[in-house]
Amino acid sequence: MKISVDPGLCYGSGECVYRIPSVFTTVDGFGAVIPGREETGDDPEVRAMAERCPSQAITIG
Ligand code: SF4
């Protein structure tokens, strides 16, 4: 499954980048998915990160 970060919701806590630097990065101060890593939505660690994102900006689908 595919993940994405909504920059309109993200407030740049950086938690996703800190916890899973192989999937998330920072662009202009906001969280973003590293290009080519969008298809990691089946990874339990990524799914858990989507649930714990403080602004619910990470979506899987
Ligand atoms: S954890 Fe959520 S709010 Fe924090 S940088 Fe990542 S997407 Fe943005």
Describe the structure.
With 61 residues, this protein is an alpha+beta fold. It has one domain: Alpha-Beta Plaits. 23% of the residues lie in helices and 23% in strands. The chain is built from two helices and four strands. The strands form two sheets. Strands 1-4 form a two-stranded antiparallel ribbon. Strands 2-3 form a two-stranded antiparallel sheet. Strand 2 and strand 3 form a beta hairpin. The longest helix is centred in the C-terminal third of the chain and has 9 residues, at 44-52. The mean pLDDT is 97. Bound molecules: iron/sulfur cluster. Iron/sulfur cluster is lined by residues 5, 10-16, 31, 53-55, 57-58. This is Ferredoxin. One of its GO terms (molecular function) is 3 iron, 4 sulfur cluster binding. It comes from Streptomyces aurantiogriseus.
Q: How is this fold's topology laid out?
A:
Layout: E1 3-5, H1 15-19, E2 24-27, E3 30-33, H2 44-52, E4 58-60
Antiparallel strand pairs: 1-4, 2-3
This protein binds iron/sulfur cluster (SF4).
Iron/sulfur cluster is lined by residues 5, 10-16, 31, 53-55, 57-58.
